[in-house]
């Protein structure tokens, strides 16, 4: 009798508590795993600002291609702001740049050479989460310059934003015409980056002169995904 009371009062609650704790521990580990796609590290970016120092008219008026950058690193806040302007979410919850049929064929990558708080390497921008995931741990700045017909600023810039297109996302609905739409979409995004760079006191240029295959191979893009623009960014 006494033993059964001891079991019910002391041991049973302990067993139940241990079971509950184990359950929550495994739940937590699963959540962590889901956040790591292909074991890639996820870097949450700082919240972007929705108001700046420069009016849109001033940014348009000042915009020009800049190919000379200082040796200073970019901050993670600056990178965050540029990526938001490229493909982040607006106040309505859709992306900041228009997209034919809202099919969003563009994927953005960052080649970080000199960014405070970011290990040098290649990152993929996750616009839904405003985060970066490691794409490759390699430094490709020199190879990228070579593949871009030796345009020196492609290597020198502390950051390169890569605008790539996955054509099938748009062509499956619009056929051949979808190809044109993807190029047009990349233009909208590039202009946003130009204007955001101007507002942050940074310089950039769209580089379309590069060997398609060589550059796509550097990013390990599969058939159907193409680099559309390389945008070196740095402090003026
Ligand atoms: C489709 C396209 C491709 C370009 N490719 C390059 C390039 O490979 N290298 C470069 O330095 N500038 C490139 N540019 C930038 C142009 O040279 C630049 O926009 C032009 O000289 C006008 O100067 P601005 O941008 O200062 O107004 C390209 C521009 C466009 C629209």
What is the strand and helix layout of this fold?
Elements: H1 2-35, E1 42-44, H2 56-62, H3 76-87, E2 106-112, E3 121-126, E4 131-136, H4 141-147, H5 152-156, E5 159-166, H6 168-174, H7 177-199, E6 202-204, H8 212-218, E7 225-235
Antiparallel strand pairs: 1-4, 2-3, 2-5, 3-4, 5-7, 6-7
Helix pairs in contact: 2-7, 3-7, 6-7
Bound molecules: flavin mononucleotide.
What are the main properties of this structure?
single chain; 236 residues; alpha+beta; NADH Oxidase; 2 domains; seven-stranded antiparallel β-sheet; 8 helices; 7 strands; 43% helix; binds flavin mononucleotide
In CATH, the topology of the largest domain is named NADH Oxidase
Looking at CATH, the homologous superfamily of the largest domain is NADH Oxidase
* Whole-number total of structural domains: 2
- Mass-distribution shape: elongated
Order of helices and strands: HEHHEEEHHEHHEHE
Query: Termini separation (Å)?
Result: 84 Å
Brief sketch in words of this structure:
With 236 residues, the protein is an alpha+beta fold.
How would you portray this structure in words?
With 236 residues, this protein is α+β, with helices and mostly antiparallel strands. It has two domains: 2-35; 42-235, NADH Oxidase (3-Layer(aba) Sandwich), CATH 3.40.109.10. It contains eight helices and seven strands. The protein has a seven-stranded antiparallel sheet with strand order 1-4-3-2-5-7-6, with helices on both faces. A hairpin with an 8-residue loop joins strand 2 (106-112) and strand 3 (121-126). Helix 2 packs across helix 7 (177-199). The longest helix is centred in the first third of the chain and has 34 residues, at 2-35. Residues 23-39 have low confidence and may be disordered. Bound molecules: flavin mononucleotide.
């Amino acid at each position: 009798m006494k033993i059964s009371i001891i079991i019910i009062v002391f041991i049973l609650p302990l067993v139940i508590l241990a079971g509950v704790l184990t359950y929550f521990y495994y739940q937590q580990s699963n959540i962590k795993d889901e956040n790591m796609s292909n074991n890639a590290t996820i870097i949450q970016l700082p919240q972007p600002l929705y108001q700046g120092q420069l009016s849109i008219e001033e940014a348009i008026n000042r915009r020009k291609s800049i190919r000379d950058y200082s040796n200073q690193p970019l901050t993670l806040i600056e990178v965050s702001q540029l990526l938001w302007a490229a493909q982040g979410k607006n106040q309505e919850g859709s992306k900041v740049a228009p997209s034919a049929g809202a099919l969003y064929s563009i994927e953005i990558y960052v080649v970080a050479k000199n960014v405070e708080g970011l290990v040098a390497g290649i990152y993929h921008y996750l616009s839904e989460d405003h985060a970066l995931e490691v794409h490759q741990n390699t430094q490709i700045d020199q190879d990228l310059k070579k593949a871009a017909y030796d345009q020196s600023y492609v290597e020198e810039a502390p950051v390169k934003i890569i605008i790539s297109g996955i054509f099938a996302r748009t062509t499956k609905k619009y056929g051949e015409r979808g190809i044109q739409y993807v190029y047009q979409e990349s233009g909208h995004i590039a202009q946003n980056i130009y204007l955001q760079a101007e507002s942050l006191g940074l310089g950039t240029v769209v580089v379309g002169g590069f060997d398609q295959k060589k550059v796509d191979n550097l990013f390990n893009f599969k058939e159907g995904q193409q680099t559309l623009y390389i945008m070196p960014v740095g402090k003026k």
